[in-house]
Amino acid sequence: MAVEISRRTALGALVVSSLTACRNTGWSEDSSPTTARASTGFSSLNNMKGITLSTWNHGLTANRAGIGVLNGGGTALDAVESGCRAVELDCPDMTVGLASRPDRDGFVTLDAAIMTGEGRAGAVGFVRGVVHPISLARAVMERTPHVLLVGAGAEQFARESGLEVRPECQACDAIGGACLSPAAEREWRDWLLERQYRPRINIENHDTISMLALDKNGRMAAGSTTSGLAYKMHGRVGDSPIIGAGIFVDAPIGGAICTGLGETVLRTLGAHLAVEAMRHGMTPQEACEHAIARIIEKNGNPAEYQVGMLALDFHGRVGAFAVQKGFTYALGESLHDAPSELR
Fold first, then answer.
1. Which of 99, 290, 315, 335 fits 181 for a cystine, CB–CB 3.0-4.6 Å?
2. Which tops the pLDDT comparison, 203 or 33?
3. With DSSP H G I counted as helix, E B as strand and the rest as coil, what are the percentages for the chain, rounded to 5?
């Protein structure tokens, strides 16, 4: 019964979201959500400049940057990179970029991934000092024969690619040796007093920026960038840079992105699971619900973690679902609360 109720709630939210997208992306008011769903392809949607879909409140920041790219004729890939870069530079909740909360040893380590519908992908993990990990992930995709680079090797490639890498201060702290933002250092030092790892749902540990974009030419891309869990073990890498876990796109089916406790997503390859569900006929909303149900089934104890999932298909349909209430997402320039299994 809970699933059926949540599905009805979600479908209602989807209609509202679709109408909002019409206004924010340049759809004609005559192109109703019903017409969009019934269409045979993205190109049949009149006057659309593109769709941007991102996780959490800071998804609005990402989407605004992405919308500007799409409105200027840019690609979905460009929109995703620009959107993620915007949050890497300005993330008030300290979960993305160099101003984020550190790991338990006092170091900010960053992960990112980017992917296109054609199957091209690039990712980086456990990098330090890189101002824009999402751009480094794109460079891995476009300039190397590899998909994933990590640690010092990824940082070296960033320098060789002309990307900004800030040196760490060796004398900043006797324990961590890393330069933290004043707010992050203050919170980290408070945490050091007890050294108890207690993730808080929907707050400091789960606010990755993950983003999907669909451009006017029917090309889709996904991206994700994060500092990962606050006070994680040094060396920990989550789901964000793992293709098929944190992000996945497959033309002509669609794409999915995840945010939340990465270990639960890694164990199920959540984004790939949702896209495969769409391949077998599920709507994006049904696919998100299916994937979240699998995550709960395999990990148990859903009250102890949060995972939020978004999906987008090539008809422009959107899906959103989470384990717990409180997961917000941005569609175009509007913010929405996702339905959830637990309420």
1. 99
2. 203
3. 35, 20, 40
Note the helical H segments in 144-239.
Answer: 151-160, 182-192
* 236 neighbors 102 (Cβ within 8 angstroms): no
Q: Nearest-5° angle of CA 332, CA 294, CA 141?
A: 55
Closest by CA to 149, choosing from 114, 176, 118, is 114
Please tell me which residue in 25, 75, 95, 208 is annotated as part of the active site. 208
User: Given this model, what pLDDT does residue 231 score?
Assistant: 84
**Contact yes or no for 55/322 (Cβ under 8 A):** no
Predicted structure pTM score = 0.81
Instruction: Return the CATH number of 2-342, one of 3.40.640.10, 3.60.20.30, 3.60.120.10, 3.40.190.10.
Output: 3.60.20.30
DSSP conformation letters of 254-275: EEEEEEE-HHHHHTTTHHHHHH
pLDDT at 2 > cutoff 80: no
In terms of phi and psi (left: phi > 0; alpha: psi -120 to 50; beta: otherwise), the region of 168 is: beta
| Residue 55 appears among annotated catalytic residues | no
- In angstroms, how far is the first alpha carbon of the chain from the final one? 13
The pLDDT confidence band at residue 175, using thresholds 50, 70 and 90, is: very low
User: What are 211-241's pLDDT values in tens digits?
Assistant: 999 999 999 999 999 988 888 889 999 999 9
- Taking alpha carbons only, the member of 28, 32, 74, 73 closest to residue 47 is 28
- 264-322 pLDDT, tens digit per residue, is 999 999 999 999 999 999 999 999 999 999 999 999 999 999 999 999 999 999 999 99
Helix axes 2-25, 284-299, angle to 10 degrees: 130
Is 107 in contact with 234 (CB distance < 8 Å)?
Answer: yes
